[in-house]
Specification:
1 helix, 93% helix, rod-shaped, 137 residues
Length: 137
């Protein structure tokens, strides 16, 4: 019977050695998987940090662009107001010029009418004196 115990002992030792080898293999695989996972985590953390930096940069650029947009809008509004003022001034100048032109036309018409009356009177006097022109006027 001692032989059977020895066989059982050898079988147990063989099983224990096989299980120990399997356990060492599993531990080795788990360590490899852990190392790979840690590398992935490190890579993902680096990528996340890069994304945070890029997001911050994008926010800063957006704020700068917004400030530039606001400034450009103010400048555009100022230019529009200036252009509207110049257009109003030009309209006033046109209205003034038109009024001066109307007055000049009226004065011209009055002058032509006055010259016409003067000429008719001169003709009438010339005709009444027998054709001699009156140069005294």
């Amino acid at each position: 019977m001692t032989g059977s115990y020895e066989m059982i002992g050898e079988q147990v030792r063989a099983d224990a050695s096989r299980l120990a080898d399997e356990l060492r293999q599993t531990v080795s695989e788990l360590r490899g998987a852990l190392a790979a996972t840690q590398a992935q985590v490190a890579s993902l953390e680096a990528a996340a940090e890069q994304l945070r930096v890029e997001a911050q940069t994008a926010r800063e650029e957006a704020a700068t662009a917004h400030g530039q947009l606001v400034q450009a809008q103010r400048l555009a509004e100022e230019r529009i107001r200036s252009a509207e003022q110049r257009a109003d001034d030009a309209r006033r100048q046109l209205d003034d010029a038109s009024a001066r032109c109307r007055r000049a036309e009226e004065e011209r018409a009055l002058l032509i009418a006055a010259l016409g009356r003067r000429g008719r009177r001169k003709l009438e006097r010339t005709d009444s004196r027998g054709g001699a022109a009156d140069d005294a006027e």
